[in-house]
Amino acid sequence: MTGQKPEYFNMDIEPLLNTPEMRKMQESKLRSTVQFFYEHVPFDRERMDKAGVKPEDIRSFEDLANAIPVVGQADYREVFKGIGNDMFEAYRILFGEERLKDMHLLTTTSGTTGIPTPYPVFHKSAEAMGEIFGRIGWRLGFGDGDRLAVGFGLSMHAAGTPHLYWFKKIKGLTILPIGAEVGTERILSFLRLFRANILSCTPSLALHLIERAPEVLGEPVKNLNLKTLLLGAEPGAGIPEVRRRLEGEYGAEVYDVGAGYGVSCNHPDYQGMHWIADDHCYYELIDPETHKPVPMEHGATGLAVFTPLEPRATIFFANLRFTINDIHQVFTEPCPCGKTGFRYKIVGRADDMLKVKGVPVYPAALQGVINDFVPRVTGAFRIILEVPPPRVVPPLKIKVEYGEATGKGDLAALEKEILEKMHALHKVRPSITWVKPNTLERAVKKTQLFEKAYED
Ligand SMILES: [Zn+2]
Q1: Cα of 221 to ligand 1 centre, how many Å?
Q2: Buried-most residue among 223, 289, 343, 397 (CB within 10 A)?
Q3: Which domains does the chain have, with CATH numbers?
């Protein structure tokens, strides 16, 4: 033993990510996976029956894509509705009795759109989570003496409580379950009191803490000496302007995690998240409108779809061909950072997509441009929808907060610069309404970027 740390947490699997050998390994699991869902999960069995396919008809991933339509949260809600929101009956249908007996923890989405989507953690999933997040923590250099503060919601929230399993296999790492619910004041105090050096939370919260720290702690967030921000649940760390701002304000490395099993790397230019779980989950892209397969080529964009390959140990995605409605762009060529795994960037949510004169526009893209103008703006903004999305009657209308030190006389020039950048990058030229700093509500979980004027 030289005492040198291996390159990866799992030296049997991670060197093989995104290789033909790995593809063979995935194919060898497909048969038993499909068989499991057909035999044990009423929801998937019904989907297959409806499509007129039997497990033995599915011999390849192409067969799978052709035979079984994708499902998502909306399909879950249909199931809830059909049985009068009897949730335990819903779990039996969606996950199957076999796995229900092994269910250890039940978390959900934040439920901002009605009944929250359940994310079950089976006993075997807890093990798998330790493995997958072991890979993530290893890549980020977590270990001895690190204290990770959980700033995600802890009340039933899929991103919060499972942290207790996620980093179980990273020796020397201590978890501080603070939780978004306690509010920014206590989050900031706990971070300082217990000397956390890693913070996991939404980008919205990380941005909000920058504004609150001087008032609550009497000093900027930089003085907390965090070394790493691990961000997820909404776009942010992947938006270059937001990442740059967070890195500058915190003096920390900023990583993006989630929307599947991936984590970004420390390359100075954001390269997307490395997908680190080929052995656990099959990833594919489809066209968001036609649902036809999109080949996994370098630079391809589509709706991301997940099929678990270890059905008894699923993490978040518990059915065949499940989507969380995220549009991804993938990069299959090797990353300049040298680490394995194809990469994916979140372009936006399929249901957040707006169409302005036929051009698709994602709120996250506009957020990126606006954050590049901080401190002349605060970074907070809203998109005003006058008709239900995705249609927009041009021009697209946005409300933007100007910065504390920005005078009324500076706004015309600032507006011109913002619009030129939005047009150059995203082919859209919105009409801006300026509002005073701190007019728009700040969120500790996810920021709602739309104001639905048509609902008033
Ligand atoms: Zn990389």
Answers
A1: 27
A2: 343
A3: 14-101+275-351 (3.40.50.12780), 127-257 (3.40.50.12780), 353-455 (3.30.300.30)
